Amino acid sequence: MQPPAGSQVSRVPAQRPPSDHLAPPSPAPAPERPRRRLRTVLTVVTSVVVALCLGGVAAGFVLYNRAAAPDRSAPDVVVDNYLRAFLVDRNDTRANLFTCENADKAGQLRALRDDLVAREKRFATTFTISWGSLQVQQQGSGAEVQVELIISARVDGISQSDRQAWQFTTRLDDDWRVCAGSRVP
């Protein structure tokens, strides 16, 4: 109830209890802790995944280069790869990876391949070319490689084959290369 209008009570300011009797102020909410732990874990996991991916890409690149690079490690290996590329696959670009820069590219082996291609068209057949072991005689940075080519075909139901002795000259610069090849009489 309110005191009458002219009373002294109304003019006296209301008394307040001392502040120590007041209820403690409600605590301010503690600031949220930044999510550093989650951020750190995500950063570490992301870094590991990126490192693994980069390592995988590097390993893949190295393995691909080793698999795709031509093997020119020895005279017999380079002659074998050259014969496979030139006669079996008939891939001049690949065969050139195994030859010297100044190699006789229009030599006797090309004449043999051209003759086989012409005969395949004429007789409607396919020639298969194989060879046995390769005999290497190395002399310093050069080597002579002898091999017997076996040329086979089936013409009119009859199997035919021819054996030809060939000799290839190879040279070692950074790696082995075929420089010349000729039929041995």
Summarize the structure.
The chain is α+β, with helices and mostly antiparallel strands and 185 residues long.
Question: Which terms would index this structure?
Answer:
185 residues; single chain; alpha+beta; 5 strands
Secondary structure class reads: alpha+beta
The coarse overall form would be: rod-shaped
Portion in helices: 25-40%
For the largest beta-sheet, the strand count, sense and barrel status come to:
5 strands, antiparallel
H and E order: HHHHEEEEE
Radius of gyration: 45 Å
Strand content: 15-25%
Quick one: how many beta strands? 5
Total helix count? 4
The overall pLDDT average reads: 85
Your description of this structure?
The chain is rod-shaped and about 145 Å long. The protein starts with 35 loop residues before the first helix and ends with a strand. The protein is built from four helices and five strands. Strands 1, 2, 3, 4 and 5 form a five-stranded antiparallel sheet that branches. It is an alpha+beta fold and 185 residues long.
